[in-house]
Amino acid sequence: MTASIRFVFVVHDHQPVGNFDGVFEQAYHDSYRPFLDLLERHPQIRIGLHTSGPLAEWLEAHHPEYLDRLAALAARRQIEIVGGAFAEPVLAMLPSWDRIGQIRRYTDWLEHRLKTAVSGMWVAERVWDPSMTADLAAAGIEWTILDDSHFKAAGLVDEQLDRHWLTEGDGKTLTVFPVSERLRYVIPFAAPEATIDHLRLLASRRDGAIAVFGDDGEKFGVWPDTHRTCFEEGWLERFFGLLEANQDWISMSLPSEVVRDEPPAGTIWLPECSYREMTEWVLPPAQQLACIRGRQAAATDPSLAALAPFVRGGSWRNFRHRYPEANEMYARMLVVSNRLARLGATGPVDSQAYDDAVAATYRGQCNCAYWHGAFGGIYLPHLRNAIYRELITAENALDRAEGRPAAWVEAVSSDYDFDGRTEVRLSNEHLDCWIAPAAGGMLYELDLRQQRHNLLATLDRRPEAYHEQVLAGPGQARSIIDASQLATFKQEGLERMVRYDSTRRKSLIDHFYDIDARADAVAAGEALERGDFASGGYEASIRRNPDRMQVLLSRRGNVWGIPLKLSKAITLSAGTDRVEIGYKLEGLPANFCQHLAVEFNFAGLPAQAAGRCFRDGHGIERGHLGSQLDLKEVDQLTLEDDWLDIRATLNCQVASNGGQAGIWTFPIESVSQSEGGFELVHQSVVVMPHWIVTPDASGCWQVTLQLDVSRLATATTHQDAAAAAHLRTGS
After folding, report:
1. Which of 23, 80, 272, 704 is buried most, with the most CB atoms less than 10 Å from its CB?
2. Separation CA 431–CA 709 (nearest Å)
3. How far is Cα 371 from Cα 673, in angstroms, rounded to an integer?
4. Quick one: 422 exposed, middle or buried, by C-beta within 10 A (0-12, 13-18, 19+)?
5. 669 flagged as catalytic
């Protein structure tokens, strides 16, 4: 008699908040719908299906018939609907109240829409933290699935991974299934028979074994070449047919059935972990490559093979170390979440506005923009923009929920980004300015409340492990993990475009260059920094008036070894959409003559796109928003985006020595990796007014800048979906 096995097959379908409508639609046609079509033709194939909240909401709006079909399949128990946190956040980064709130909200949504009970959930990116156990249990979750690497990291061996386990936290228990890494790699990339052979091996080892597959549904049609493999060439049809042909010993089981029918193997306490690749991606490039090579060596050396399960990388949280921009989003999200929690405890004035704020906050926690691996992630501007859009939406809703007055201004200081140093938030009803005195006195976030857009959702260019492959050029192996694949270059010449930034790509970054510094050298990062102000610490003080707030930043530093004091005052008034910035240099020797350039970055305004352009002070168009310009003796430059309804105008008053500014502009473009290969991504555009500084008789030099950020008077209102579609340009 053939030994039997229970096969638990779980599919996870997801599209992130902010992804383009066309991407959703293409994935629906290439993967989600044909998979469901095939499933309906094979009623003996039973699976667990998780559809993330952002995707489910899109399907409800665009293809509600798909959700009706899911409900029918769930009613006849061919599929089990797998729950999760509504907006697909990495739960490990959330406070407890948001973990529980997200899960409960999505369970309620699914049970109401699909008329089925939800008892288990998908953990986004399988990022696990032991503290999550009690929160999942409190949210009503009975089971989840994690990678077998989690269990191996806890000391279990392969022979113990053909069953489900309990884990415990704060006295609460949760059933956890180990997902087979072997099955993740062979489905659908090896012949269908390879899976059957693996299941036969597991069954022969223990009668009644459990095998679990759990992975992205997009690998069935969305990932490169998989639509052809799975549907046109019939891989999935053959796979389902083999499962049906072997159902005398392969029993396709829903997760909740296994939990109900079989006792757990025992209780295991899983460490903080994710799937193996994720723990590698979070490491800095050199350590990432060392970890991969170490794991490969351990796996192939018999004397080290027992150590291989314990060779893994770092904590998912350290993506916030690798990418300060991820930490900025996270910190911004926590500000909103904490404000929500406080208001929830005291009671909102407007309950509908409060609920709107909750929904937007949850969407602003969607994980995809907070990290980077084989997919674009944080490198994709439209995903970062979407996160900030939701968080600003939540703040606006909270203003209504609190009954805040129509016009106001405030300045608040705190350690917002958890670096042990104080930042300042300068805000009114139109603008939200976030300033880091200790990091060059930079303006690192500038939110436009009406347009719900952060003009400083930028990304610095920094080394990545895969840049070694890019620099080698086309035709080289894609990865040390799979040397059989060749790297795909989505544009020509990427190997010449890899550059790294020595200072943050934010605003109010103060550079001192040589007198004869050229625009092209500055754009290429070849102009030498002659001062210590660009990343040096500034002292900060706040001057408060009822309708006007000012943050004064000052630093004593040097340029070419010459000591001086640089002060910059940032002023915001109630009822305005203008930021005033005053610069003053003091203590200059009489013969002082240096080149000062103040860097501004503008993000989310795509290059080479219709309706987005520079205009000079005469209203003359000077090129698209990725143009490299070298403007002489100008006092104004405007950036216009008629899709986002933004006009940002930088005015430079004549300096105290009578000199007008020149303005350099140039794009910041990164070379990054996505599932389709290597590509060039437009991240921001630099606008850099610059002056030759010479002192007056008192040894001072001064200039005033004004940044007006308004709505376009002639702009028409565009739907968010259309605006998002146009954001694709350059990304």
Report:
1. 80
2. 9
3. 12
4. middle
5. no
Q: Which residues pair with 382 in a beta bridge?
A: none
CB atoms within 10 A of CB 420: 7
At 266, which amino acid appears?
G
What's the CATH fold of domain 412-463+500-726? Answer: Beta-galactosidase; Chain A, domain 5 (2.70.98)
The residue ranges of every structural domain in the chain are 5-272, 412-463+500-726
In this structure, are residues 542 and 550 in contact, taking their beta carbons and an 8 Å threshold?
Answer: yes
Instruction: Tell me which residue of 395, 685, 455 sits closest to 577, measured CA to CA.
Output: 455
Identify the weakest region by mean pLDDT among 17-26, 476-485, 628-637: 476-485
The residue type found at 84 is G
- pLDDT at res. 479: 54
* 586 catalytic per annotation: no
DSSP symbol at 32? I
Structure-model confidence comparison of residues 726 and 466, the more confident one: 466
Count, in order, helices (H) and strands (E) of the chain. 21, 28
Phi, psi of 432 (to 5 degrees): -135, 110
For the stretch 4-31, pLDDT in tens is 999 999 999 999 999 999 999 999 999 9
**Spatial contact of 450 and 392, defined as CB atoms under 8 Å apart:** no
**Residue 2, CA distances (Å) to 205, 207, 213, 245, 393 in order:** 12, 9, 22, 14, 59
Contact 259, 164 (CB under 8 A): yes
**How far apart, in whole angstroms, are the C-alpha atoms of residue 245 and residue 247?**
6
The active-site residue, picked from 216, 529, 675, 708, is 216
Other beta carbons within 10 angstroms of residue 81's beta carbon come to 24
Helices (H), 63-117: 64-75, 96-114
Beta-strand ranges (E) seen in 344-439 are 409-414, 423-428, 431-436
CB count within 10 Å of CB 163 equals 20
DSSP string, 173-189: EEEEEEEPHHHHHHTTT
Rounded to whole angstroms, the Cα distance separating 387 from 645 reads: 18
Q: What pLDDT, in 10s, does the model give residues 80-120?
A: 999 999 999 999 999 999 999 999 999 999 999 999 999 99
Tell me the C-alpha distance between 323 and 331, whole Å.
13
Number of other CB atoms surrounding residue 565 within 10 Å: 15
Alpha carbons 686 and 696: distance in angstroms, whole number: 30
- β pairing state of 5-13 and 209-216: parallel
Do residues 452 and 604 make contact, with C-beta atoms less than 8 angstroms apart? no
Cα torsion 562, 563, 565, 566 to 10°: value is 40
pLDDT tens figures, 117-161: 999 999 999 999 999 999 999 999 999 999 999 999 999 999 999
CATH number for region 5-272: 3.20.110.20
Q: Which of 13, 125, 460, 640 is catalytic?
A: 125
pLDDT of residue 676: 82
- In the DSSP assignment, the letter for residue 273 is B
Mean pLDDT for the chain? 94
Residues in the chain, total: 731
Strands annotated E in 132-272: 143-147, 165-169, 172-179, 209-216, 250-252
Determine the Cα–Cα distance for residues 317 and 487; give it in Å rounded to an integer. Answer: 29
Torsion angle of C-alpha atoms 522, 528, 531, 536, degrees rounded to 10: 80
Residue 556: exposed, middle, or buried by beta-carbon count in 10 A (0-12, 13-18, 19+)? middle
Work out the pLDDT band at 658, boundaries 50, 70, 90.
confident
> Which residue, 422, 423, 336, 359, is CA-closest to 95?
336
Task: Answer for the pair 427, 395: CB distance below 8 angstroms, yes or no.
Answer: no
Q: What's the order of all strands across the beta sheet hosting 646-652?
A: 539-545, 548-559, 562-573, 578-586, 701-710, 646-652, 636-641, 612-616, 621-623
